[in-house]
Design a protein that fits this description.
Elements: H1 3-14, H2 27-39, E1 45-46, H3 56-63, H4 71-74, H5 84-94, E2 101-104, H6 106-118, E3 124-129, H7 134-141, E4 145-152, E5 157-158, H8 160-168, E6 173-177, H9 189-201, E7 205-209, E8 229-234, E9 247-250, H10 253-262, H11 272-283, H12 285-312, E10 316-317, E11 326-327, E12 330-331, H13 337-348, E13 350-351, E14 353-354, E15 364-367, H14 372-390
Parallel strand pairs: 1-13, 3-4, 3-6, 6-7, 7-8
Antiparallel strand pairs: 2-9, 4-5, 8-9, 10-12, 11-15, 14-15
Helix pairs in contact: 1-7, 5-11, 6-7, 8-9, 12-14, 13-14
Length: 391
């Protein structure tokens, strides 16, 4: 099936119906269009930054010595098994054995590798909803039939009875995010163990995208909780290092080896230079953890203050999650998220993500991982437009 048809099918299943700025269908396409619009407006504000601002100074300082300095020791071959120093650093960070790790070109690449091994054509795969649209798109691309399981507002927990119905109907794979994308809510370890135990009764596997998990605990990895949990992660969100294209799979050694062998004939796509840099970063992770913590210490109070004001005016509902840099408020004004995004841009040059792209039309997703001054300006304009629409 052509890419556009596949994505359209999945988005219709998600319930996404978008127009205007958001008529491109997928979150990725929406983001590309949004960035192009931002470049043409000096007064524009982005409320959709869903990762931490890139730590340019830290990265430059780390690399000052070049290949003759500290980078030289980590600049080694990655053919076949990845950068050994990167794997060693990941194993130490997450308290894993090295044979539980496989490095990848980002988390999405890790998801593709897993789905190509675990999905048989026509197999049912359970996917959370609201969801990051890449999850069902990749699963469908691998040949799966998608069955959504609801993460219920306001806490975005999962109903175990609904999950069991899906497993009993034949699903052998569940796709989740934790922290949940788009809401930012955490599924605690106790809940994940319950989900894994339930899946195990049906010989099912749970894949968890943990790119936001480090905001709650930088050393947490759900692959340590149960042998049928496998995770993907990257340096993109908490460290703001999208350009490194460094990700990894963590899971039981037998599954990791199965994935490695299944894709042994392909170019692994892992860049020797960027994964050498990633190894250095993880060896000096304290500085990079301090970077995102400092940013959120400035942006979170700004968000909380404006959200409190908008909630007091009866314009939105939903608590800001205690971790992470994304918020998914429910709108109480007589507007869909999609229409509000258009109104925000036309009237105030502010861009926020419509909840329809994640399967819930009544919401927006707001990111607050960058500049507190721009965040305050954007939230103030959002508040003004919401009040205008309400009146």
């Amino acid at each position: 099936m052509p890419r556009s048809s596949l994505e359209g099918m999945v988005l219709r299943s998600c319930g996404a119906s978008v127009a205007g700025l958001s008529d491109l269908g997928t979150y990725t396409d929406w983001s590309v269009a949004a960035i192009r619009r931002l470049r043409g407006r000096a007064d524009a504000v982005a409320l959709f930054d869903s990762s931490i601002a890139e730590p340019t100074r830290l990265l430059s300082g780390l690399l000052e010595g070049g290949l003759e300095g500290p980078l030289g020791s980590s600049f080694v071959s990655v053919f076949g098994s990845g950068n050994p120093l990167l794997i060693e650093a990941l194993a130490a960070r997450y308290r894993l054995s090295p044979d539980m790790l496989l490095t990848t070109t980002g988390a999405i690449n890790g998801l593709e590798l897993l789905l190509n091994v675990l999905v048989a054509p026509g197999q049912t795969v359970l996917v959370e909803r609201p969801c990051f649209d890449v999850l069902p798109i990749l699963a469908a691309k691998a040949g799966a039939e998608i069955r959504f399981v609801e993460r219920v507002y306001p806490d975005y927990d999962l109903d175990l009875a609904e999950l069991e119905q899906g497993f009993a109907a034949g699903a052998r794979l569940l796709l989740l995010t934790n922290l949940h994308n788009p809401s930012g809510h955490l599924l605690p370890d106790a809940r994940l163990r319950q989900i894994a135990d339930l899946a195990a009764r049906y010989q099912a596997t749970v894949i968890i995208d943990e790119v936001y998990r480090g905001f709650a605990d930088p050393q947490a990895c759900a692959a340590t909780l149960a042998p049928n949990i496998v995770t993907v992660n990257s340096l993109t969100k908490i460290y703001g290092l999208f350009g490194l294209k460094c990700g990894w799979i963590a899971g039981n050694p037998a599954l990791v080896e199965q994935v490695r062998r299944h894709h042994a004939h392909r170019d692994p796509g892992v860049a020797k230079l960027t994964h050498a840099v990633a190894a250095l970063i993880l060896q000096n992770s304290g500085d990079f953890d301090a970077h995102w913590q400092a940013i959120l210490a400035r942006t979170r109070p700004v968000l909380l203050s404006h959200v409190e004001a908008m909630r007091a005016d009866g314009l939105m509902e939903g608590d800001v999650p205690p971790e992470g840099c994304i918020y998914f408020p429910r709108l109480t004004a007589p507007l869909s998220g999609t229409r509000l995004v258009e109104r925000l841009w036309q009237a105030e040059a502010v861009l926020a993500v419509p909840g329809a792209l994640f399967g819930d039309e009544r919401h927006l997703r707001i990111g607050f991982g960058a500049d507190p001054v721009a965040l305050a300006r954007g939230l103030m304009r959002l508040h003004m437009v919401l009040r205008q629409e309400r009146s």
